[in-house]
Amino acid sequence: MKVIMAQAAGVCFGVEDALATTAGITNPQAVTIHGELVHNPLVQNRLRDRGFLVNSEDSRAAAPTSAQVLITAHGISNRERLRLTSAGKQLIDTTCPLVRRAHDAALSLAREGRFVIVLGKASHVEVEGLTGDLDAFAVVNAPADVRPYPSTKLGIVCQTTLPTREAQMLRGAIAAANPHADIRFVDTICRPTKDRQRALEDILRQADAVVVVGGRHSNNTRKLLDRCAEAGRRAWHVESAADLRRDWFLGCDVVGLTGGTSTLPETLREVHDTLLSIAAECQTAPQFATVGASQWGAG
Ligand code: SF4
Predict the structure, then answer these.
(1) Which atom of ligand 1 sits closest to the CA of residue 97?
(2) Which of 97, 183, 219, 287 is the most exposed place for a label (fewest CB within 10 A)?
(3) Three state DSSP letters for 58-88
């Protein structure tokens, strides 16, 4: 069994910068992280162990008790920023610049008098931030969400981690449902997401199965898995090397490895090393060579 690693995988610069900011904080007990810094339980546990207070994503409406509040890379709306600063909170802002760019694009489309449509998941914190400063908007996550909108001038932006193929499909559905609308699309999908998606396409051309490493709540990890399923490849979602099961790989010739933008390099390395050990066992264990791949479904 051969193991191939995606050319681009794991943490993006936005997450790296946020992690570097937390590493430099010397008084974590005085800081509340406003939501999950990254959707990665390993990182979350380390932050809690260091003493950071964490407001879960569902409880962000509650006022943090600490004087300092750390805004995650997913960003927040200006209205939310004002709510926190008006309550006397000092903000430590790790909003990714590419999320800011998406906010700017949405606001600029609204200023042009366009009804803004955000392509993405309405309940995702980044989308909540993106829409939080808009008075009228729609969020579209699937073709079934598309409507004729109450304006002939529409503006579309994307959640930064949306797959390009989904964006194209949803744009088409919006245009079809609003045939007379003047539609302006701003591609706010971030470069690291595009790099990871492109690298996955390379893997899908070579591998018959894929391991995707990432947090269970990581949206972009989920999207990588969805793409594997769409391409007809077996794919397994693991959070760490401990989740790997040797019998998954019976009958596999080439296994691809990738990870979402919140997956640490050390986790990817551990998964990679464990896959290599499994591959070495495959060379020596006769049952690995004789059991057909069709017996093993996706986990
Ligand atoms: S996924 Fe993209 S937008 Fe989000 S933090 Fe990473 S680089 Fe920034």
Answers:
(1) 8
(2) 287
(3) HHCCCCCCCCEEEECCCCCCHHHHHHHHHCC
Task: Extract the tokens encoding 212.
Answer: 């995707």
Q: Would you state the pLDDT for residue 48? A: 94
* Residue-range definition of the domain harbouring residue 247: 2-9+191-294
CA–centroid distance, residue 193 to ligand 1 (Å)? 7
pLDDT, mean over the chain: 92
From the CA of 6, how far away is ligand 1's center (Å)? 18
Q: How far is CA 79 from the centre of its chain?
A: 24
36, 80, 126, 128: the active-site residue? 126
Q: Is residue 299 part of a domain?
A: no
196/290 same-domain check: yes
Measured by CA distance, the residue closest to atom 7 of ligand 1 is 14
> In angstroms, how far is the first alpha carbon of the chain from the final one?
19
42 and 124 share one domain: no
What CATH number is associated with residue 58? Answer: 3.40.50.11270
Place of tokens 């709510």: 83
Protein residue with its CA nearest to atom 2 in ligand 1: 190
User: Contacts for 16-20 with beta carbons within 8 Å, 24 or more apart?
Assistant: 17/73, 17/94, 17/96, 18/72, 18/73, 18/94, 18/96, 19/43
Q: How many CB atoms lie within 10 A of CB 46?
A: 15
Token digits of residue 66: 């600490």
> For the chain, how many structural domains are there in total?
3
Helix pair 97-111, 13-23: axis angle to 10 deg: 120
Residues 164, 205 share a domain: no
Segment 114-169, tens digit of pLDDT: 999 999 999 999 999 999 999 999 999 999 999 999 999 999 999 999 999 999 99
Q: Which two tokens stand for residue 8?
A: 């681009």
Assessment of whether the complete model's pTM goes beyond 0.70: yes
